Amino acid sequence: MTKYIFVTGGVTSSLGKGIIAASLAKLLQARGFRTTIQKFDPYINVDPGTLNPYEHGECYVTEDGAETDLDLGHYERYLNTHTSQANNVTTGRIYQYVINKEREGAYLGKTVQVIPHITDEIKRRMTLLGQNNQFDIVITELGGTVGDIESLPYVEAVRQLKWEMGDENALVVHLTLIPYLKAAKELKTKPTQHSVKLMSENGLNPDVLVCRTEEPLYKELKRKIALFCNVTQDAVIEALDADTIYGVPLEMMREKLDQICLQKLELPMGTEPDLSRWKEFLNKLRYPKSKVTIGLVGKYVELQDAYKSILEALIHAGAINECKVEVKNIHSEHLTPENAAEKLQNVDAMLVAPGFGSRGIEGKIDAIRYARENKLPFFGICLGMQMACVEFARNVLGVKNAHSTEMDPDTKDGVIAMMEEQKKITQMGGTMRLGAYECELRSGSKAADIYGSTNISERHRHRYEFNNAYMDAFEKAGMIPVGKNPKTGLVEIVELPEHPFYMGVQFHPEYKSTVENPHPLFVAFVKAAKEAQENRNGHGAHHKFEKSGVAEG
Question: Which of 174, 316, 508, 519 is catalytic?
Answer without folding.
Answer: 508
